[in-house]
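Per-record layout

source: Idiomarina loihiensis
name: Osmotically-inducible protein Y
length: 146
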Amino acid sequence: MKNFKMALPASLIAISMLTLSGCSDAETEKAESKAESAMQEAEDKTENAMQETKEKAQEAKSYTEQKAEDAGEYVDDAVITTKVKAVIFEDDNLSSMDINVETNNGIVQLSGFVESDADIDTAENLAATVKGVKDIENDIQVREEN
Protein backbone atom coordinates (compact mmCIF):
# COMPACT_ATOMS: atom_id res chain seq x y z
CA MET A 1 0.00 0.00 0.00
CA LYS A 2 2.87 2.35 0.83
CA ASN A 3 4.44 1.79 -2.61
CA PHE A 4 1.14 2.51 -4.32
CA LYS A 5 0.62 5.72 -2.36
CA MET A 6 4.11 6.87 -3.31
CA ALA A 7 3.88 5.82 -6.97
CA LEU A 8 0.61 7.59 -7.70
CA PRO A 9 1.70 11.16 -6.83
CA ALA A 10 5.06 10.66 -8.52
CA SER A 11 3.36 9.45 -11.67
CA LEU A 12 0.92 12.34 -11.69
CA ILE A 13 3.72 14.85 -11.23
CA ALA A 14 5.67 13.31 -14.11
CA ILE A 15 2.65 13.44 -16.41
CA SER A 16 1.86 17.01 -15.44
CA MET A 17 5.43 18.17 -16.04
CA LEU A 18 5.57 16.55 -19.44
CA THR A 19 2.24 18.03 -20.46
CA LEU A 20 3.18 21.49 -19.27
CA SER A 21 6.57 21.42 -20.95
CA GLY A 22 4.95 21.10 -24.33
CA CYS A 23 5.88 17.52 -25.07
CA SER A 24 4.46 15.80 -28.07
CA ASP A 25 1.44 13.56 -27.83
CA ALA A 26 3.65 10.51 -28.32
CA GLU A 27 5.88 11.49 -25.43
CA THR A 28 2.87 12.22 -23.23
CA GLU A 29 1.35 8.83 -24.06
CA LYS A 30 4.66 7.14 -23.31
CA ALA A 31 4.84 8.91 -19.93
CA GLU A 32 1.22 8.00 -19.16
CA SER A 33 1.94 4.39 -20.06
CA LYS A 34 4.94 4.31 -17.75
CA ALA A 35 2.88 5.87 -14.97
CA GLU A 36 0.14 3.29 -15.43
CA SER A 37 2.72 0.49 -15.37
CA ALA A 38 4.23 1.89 -12.18
CA MET A 39 0.79 2.12 -10.58
CA GLN A 40 -0.08 -1.44 -11.63
CA GLU A 41 3.24 -2.71 -10.27
CA ALA A 42 2.60 -0.91 -6.97
CA GLU A 43 -0.91 -2.38 -6.78
CA ASP A 44 0.44 -5.87 -7.48
CA LYS A 45 3.12 -5.53 -4.79
CA THR A 46 0.53 -4.25 -2.34
CA GLU A 47 -1.80 -7.14 -3.12
CA ASN A 48 1.01 -9.66 -2.67
CA ALA A 49 2.10 -8.08 0.61
CA MET A 50 -1.47 -8.12 1.92
CA GLN A 51 -1.89 -11.78 0.99
CA GLU A 52 1.42 -12.70 2.61
CA THR A 53 0.43 -10.80 5.76
CA LYS A 54 -2.89 -12.65 5.92
CA GLU A 55 -1.11 -16.01 5.58
CA LYS A 56 1.42 -15.15 8.30
CA ALA A 57 -1.37 -13.95 10.59
CA GLN A 58 -3.26 -17.22 10.06
CA GLU A 59 -0.10 -19.23 10.86
CA ALA A 60 0.43 -17.19 14.03
CA LYS A 61 -3.21 -17.68 15.03
CA SER A 62 -3.02 -21.45 14.54
CA TYR A 63 0.23 -21.66 16.49
CA THR A 64 -1.21 -19.59 19.35
CA GLU A 65 -4.41 -21.63 19.48
CA GLN A 66 -2.44 -24.90 19.63
CA LYS A 67 -0.20 -23.62 22.42
CA ALA A 68 -3.23 -22.39 24.38
CA GLU A 69 -4.91 -25.77 23.94
CA ASP A 70 -1.76 -27.59 25.11
CA ALA A 71 -1.51 -25.32 28.14
CA GLY A 72 -5.20 -25.87 28.89
CA GLU A 73 -4.77 -29.64 28.84
CA TYR A 74 -1.80 -29.41 31.19
CA VAL A 75 -3.74 -27.19 33.60
CA ASP A 76 -6.78 -29.46 33.38
CA ASP A 77 -4.67 -32.52 34.19
CA ALA A 78 -3.08 -30.76 37.15
CA VAL A 79 -6.52 -29.73 38.44
CA ILE A 80 -7.84 -33.28 38.06
CA THR A 81 -4.83 -34.70 39.90
CA THR A 82 -5.30 -32.22 42.75
CA LYS A 83 -9.02 -32.97 43.04
CA VAL A 84 -8.48 -36.74 43.02
CA LYS A 85 -5.83 -36.41 45.73
CA ALA A 86 -8.24 -34.27 47.75
CA VAL A 87 -11.12 -36.75 47.63
CA ILE A 88 -8.80 -39.60 48.56
CA PHE A 89 -7.32 -37.52 51.39
CA GLU A 90 -10.79 -36.74 52.73
CA ASP A 91 -11.60 -40.44 53.09
CA ASP A 92 -10.70 -41.45 56.64
CA ASN A 93 -10.29 -45.12 55.73
CA LEU A 94 -7.56 -44.60 53.13
CA SER A 95 -3.97 -43.66 53.77
CA SER A 96 -3.54 -41.00 51.12
CA MET A 97 0.19 -40.83 51.77
CA ASP A 98 0.57 -44.27 50.19
CA ILE A 99 -1.48 -43.54 47.05
CA ASN A 100 0.07 -41.75 44.09
CA VAL A 101 -2.04 -39.93 41.51
CA GLU A 102 -0.99 -38.78 38.06
CA THR A 103 -3.16 -37.54 35.22
CA ASN A 104 -2.47 -37.38 31.50
CA ASN A 105 -5.15 -36.18 29.07
CA GLY A 106 -7.85 -36.88 31.65
CA ILE A 107 -6.69 -40.44 32.32
CA VAL A 108 -5.93 -40.89 36.01
CA GLN A 109 -3.17 -43.28 37.02
CA LEU A 110 -3.46 -44.58 40.58
CA SER A 111 -0.58 -46.43 42.17
CA GLY A 112 0.77 -47.25 45.60
CA PHE A 113 -0.23 -49.50 48.46
CA VAL A 114 -3.35 -49.93 50.61
CA GLU A 115 -4.50 -52.32 53.33
CA SER A 116 -7.21 -54.23 51.42
CA ASP A 117 -8.91 -54.93 48.10
CA ALA A 118 -11.83 -52.81 49.33
CA ASP A 119 -9.43 -49.84 49.65
CA ILE A 120 -8.39 -50.32 46.03
CA ASP A 121 -12.04 -50.14 44.95
CA THR A 122 -12.71 -47.16 47.23
CA ALA A 123 -9.81 -45.17 45.75
CA GLU A 124 -10.97 -45.92 42.22
CA ASN A 125 -14.59 -45.03 43.00
CA LEU A 126 -13.52 -41.76 44.61
CA ALA A 127 -11.36 -40.85 41.61
CA ALA A 128 -14.29 -41.56 39.28
CA THR A 129 -16.36 -38.86 41.04
CA VAL A 130 -13.99 -36.08 39.95
CA LYS A 131 -15.18 -34.02 37.00
CA GLY A 132 -12.91 -34.37 33.96
CA VAL A 133 -11.73 -37.91 34.67
CA LYS A 134 -12.04 -39.82 31.40
CA ASP A 135 -10.64 -43.14 32.57
CA ILE A 136 -8.78 -44.66 35.50
CA GLU A 137 -5.80 -46.97 35.40
CA ASN A 138 -5.66 -48.52 38.83
CA ASP A 139 -2.30 -50.03 39.76
CA ILE A 140 -2.82 -49.83 43.53
CA GLN A 141 -1.72 -52.99 45.32
CA VAL A 142 -2.55 -54.50 48.67
CA ARG A 143 0.39 -54.18 51.04
CA GLU A 144 1.81 -57.53 52.03
CA GLU A 145 1.99 -58.15 55.74
CA ASN A 146 5.31 -59.30 57.15
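summary: Residues 105 and 129 are 17 Å apart (CA to CA). Strands lie at 99-104, 107-114, 135-142.
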